[in-house]
Amino acid sequence: MKIKIIFLMFVTVCLGASCKKDFLDHPSITSPTTDNYYTNATQVNGATGILYNNVWGDWFDKAFTSVGDVLGGTVTGTQGNSQYNSFYNFQIQSTDGLVSSTWNSCYKAAGQASVLIQTFKTKKAQLGGSASFLDVGIAEARFIRGFAYFYIGRTFGDAPIVDNPLDLTKPGAYLVPRFFQKDVLRFALEDLQAAEAGLPEVSYQDGRVTKYAAIGMEAKIYLYLKDYVNAAAKAKQVIDYANGAGAGKLGLNSSYNAMFTSSTVANTNNVENLFSLRWLASMGWNGGNRFSIYVAPQPLVHPKPTGANGYSAVVPSLDMLNTATGYEAADKRRGWSVMQQGFHRADWINDNFPNGFTYDTTGKATDDHFIFTGTRSNIQKYIVGTNRADEPVTPDGHTSMPTYILRYADVLLIYAEAVLANNASTSDVNALKAFNAVHNRAGLTSLTAITENDILHERKVEFAFEGDYWFDIQRQGFEKAKAIIASQERGTLDGGGKLTSFKATLTQAQMFLPPPQSETVQDPKLLEPAVAYYK
């Protein structure tokens, strides 16, 4: 079974990790053993640093956007684009490359985390169980594994669970069944609970996960499970910390736009970041942020000094741009998240725009001066502009922007929704305070009561293009999810501005991705009904 290879390939890799000044720097390729390595925090931190970066590369390449945003309808790929088409029209097959990318990357991350957990436990036993730096390493690895299985459970539903990869070496153990989704999510929760117990309140290095990142992720899982009591309790723990001992360390970032267009703001003491994947432009295809390659407009990044490609392969959907279904007229997040006609950044300078880049659709074609996409727009989030000394963008399009997985804004909206629970509306003062903190930052006036649809819409516009909205739709249940998808305009405009409308149809079978065919061929158990993991 290929998943066995994915897991076991890390046994030797994990033994070879070391750390330089930045935890994303490449590890050493020496060949230490557990006996003579992981004897200090630096070596342990070097190993866990990889879990924030290139193990997620295949997923982040295109699958991240396809699952969270193409399925969710916040973006559209050009109709017929083979990279995104099956997600665009809900015709996903087990042979689709992006299905394999998602599966392989998630199990790759989970596998590396699992190997580290077992390795650190072995080392701790050798040292007599007194090395606290190993406890932090175990907790950090369990956080990453917990997130990986949370993503697997939401994306694939019923799925394999492998706690100890070495178990796969036992006779017959390479055939792993699918376990019930509820067990996959329980496994993720147990990892995060262990992470909560073992992680520090304040990260030992900027960008590392903390106790409150684990608590916030637990809240997100409880919300997905509709366990509103626990979701509210966990979210409140994070909020209380942000308003108390964590004031100034955790909260909403005062500049939403800079948080998505400046790697310095995003990566340096960013109070809103609870968990993000960390990328370095200099690592290129081995660890740089690739998002700009697929979403940036050509006239911004193709001329010198950058000389990169900007394919505009996915662009904001018309549904997002419609004030009735997406950003309302007064919502500042449109201008912070999207580029449309007249958009200007004085600091984004290239050879064709010496006075700063201006988004111009009047040429009615795309070249190094004009841009003309199917929705007359481009995504602005995660785009840092042109290559410059303080904001490198490599000739192959890589940047140092992180990818947010959990922001404090998410925790606030989780709390508001959990307090609402199954009620038609709520005027609870604390729920409103949490909701309106996010709402007001976007320049919108406070609401005095909120409904499920208010919160779902707020999540849509707050987290657009962040790979998450499909899961908000999915967790509504099939009937409501089907209605939401059917109402979305997924079409594009032709050269004359005429709409070629497209409304997708969601089927029950498309609520979750299928296991890749390359996996089921090697492990026929994946085609059998799911079984219980917890006896």
Describe this entry's structure for a reader:
The structure is a single chain. By secondary structure, the protein is mainly alpha-helical. 43% of the residues lie in helices and 5% in strands. It is built from 22 helices and ten strands. The strands form five sheets. It has a two-stranded antiparallel ribbon. Strands 2-8 form a two-stranded antiparallel sheet. A hairpin with a 5-residue loop joins strand 9 and strand 10. Helix 3 runs parallel beside helix 7 (132-156), helix 4 (57-70) crosses helix 6 and helix 10 crosses helix 17. Mean pLDDT is 93; it is low at 5-21 and 23-31.
Topology:
Elements: H1 2-8, H2 10-15, H3 41-49, H4 57-70, E1 75-77, H5 85-88, H6 97-126, H7 132-156, H8 181-198, H9 211-224, H10 228-243, H11 256-261, H12 263-267, E2 273-277, H13 291-295, H14 298-301, E3 314-316, H15 318-321, H16 333-337, E4 338-339, E5 344-345, E6 357-358, E7 378-379, E8 403-407, H17 408-420, H18 429-441, H19 452-462, H20 469-474, H21 478-487, E9 492-493, E10 499-500, H22 517-522
Antiparallel strand pairs: 1-3, 2-8, 4-7, 5-6, 9-10
